[in-house]
Amino acid sequence: MKTIYDIIIRPVLTEKAVKDNEKNNTLTFEVDMNASKTEIKEAVQKIFNVKVKEVRTLIVKPKPKRFGFRSSGYKKAWKKAIVKVESEKPINIAELV
């Protein structure tokens, strides 16, 4: 059985994710590749004690990566979850991490 911390791997703290959090009350996370939307919703509700409106997921495709001269490979693919929450003020994830 997966725990809530196995489902949510880490928060994504990019400029776009922080602006989206301030404007639309959305949180962005890297999640387990096999996690469903309902599992992500329950995990976020338990961790942050908020009510979740909707969960959108997408798989970020691997990008090419170089390892020195002529050797190349790819970064790993990962799953991103964008979670819209019902709250009056935005949640500051940077303070919680």
TrEMBL record:
Originating gene: rplW
Assembly with partners or alone: Part of the 50S ribosomal subunit. Contacts protein L29, and trigger factor when it is bound to the ribosome.
Signal peptide (UniProt feature, chain positions): none
One Gene Ontology biological process: translation
Gene Ontology CC terms, in alphabetical order: ribonucleoprotein complex; ribosome
Keywords, sorted A to Z: Ribonucleoprotein, Ribosomal protein, RNA-binding, rRNA-binding
Lineage: superkingdom: Bacteria
One Pfam family, short name: Ribosomal_L23
Entry protein name: Large ribosomal subunit protein uL23
InterPro entries: Nucleotide-bd_a/b_plait_sf, Ribosomal_uL23-like, Ribosomal_uL23/eL15/eS24_sf
Organism per entry: Sulfurihydrogenibium yellowstonense SS-5
Function of the molecule: One of the early assembly proteins it binds 23S rRNA. One of the proteins that surrounds the polypeptide exit tunnel on the outside of the ribosome. Forms the main docking site for trigger factor binding to the ribosome.
Family: Belongs to the universal ribosomal protein uL23 family.
GO molecular function, a single term: structural constituent of ribosome
